[in-house]
Design a protein that fits this description.
By secondary structure, the chain is of the alpha+beta class. It has a single domain, classed as SH3 type barrels. Helices cover 22% and strands 36% of the residues. It contains two helices and seven strands, in the order αβββββββα. Strands 1, 2, 3, 4, 5, 6 and 7 form a seven-stranded antiparallel beta sheet that branches.
């Protein structure tokens, strides 16, 4: 698969210099400009390089731990499937990363309290 790193770098420069950070909270799901990444890291798609992400842990208004989502159901301790807006989404727990809020584009929903608790529990299990 061809990856367009040049187009991504132009978009990333705009985000860094001009984009304002929106207000967000833990447990929200946003489309996030993740970009074009290396190897098996999750990429964003389209001209804005977007992928849905759960804000798992907000540290301040600037950065948070985010977990990217996929539409594909996967069964292993590295994934967690849940319902969001009437559709199944799967959190890719192994790809948790620190994300600057400038990458957030628009909110698409909130994860339920029970599912959010389960995701945090499973992330803790992955770390130990």
């Amino acid at each position: 698969m061809h990856k367009d790193f040049q187009q991504w770098h132009q978009r990333k420069e705009y985000l860094h210099k001009e984009k304002e950070r929106p207000h967000f909270h833990d447990g929200e799901v946003w489309f996030c400009t993740l970009g074009t990444n290396i190897g098996f890291e999750q990429d964003g798609t389209g001209e804005d390089f977007l992928r849905p992400v759960i804000a798992v842990k907000k540290f301040n208004q600037e950065v948070f731990w985010g977990v990217p989502l996929t539409k594909n159901r996967k069964k292993s301790s590295y994934y967690f499937s849940f319902e969001l807006n009437g559709k199944t989404s799967t959190a890719i727990l192994s790809q948790i990363r620190l994300i600057d809020a400038k990458r957030l584009q628009y909110k698409i929903g909130d994860i339920s309290g029970g599912d959010f608790s389960e995701i945090k529990k499973r992330l803790i299990q992955l770390l130990v």
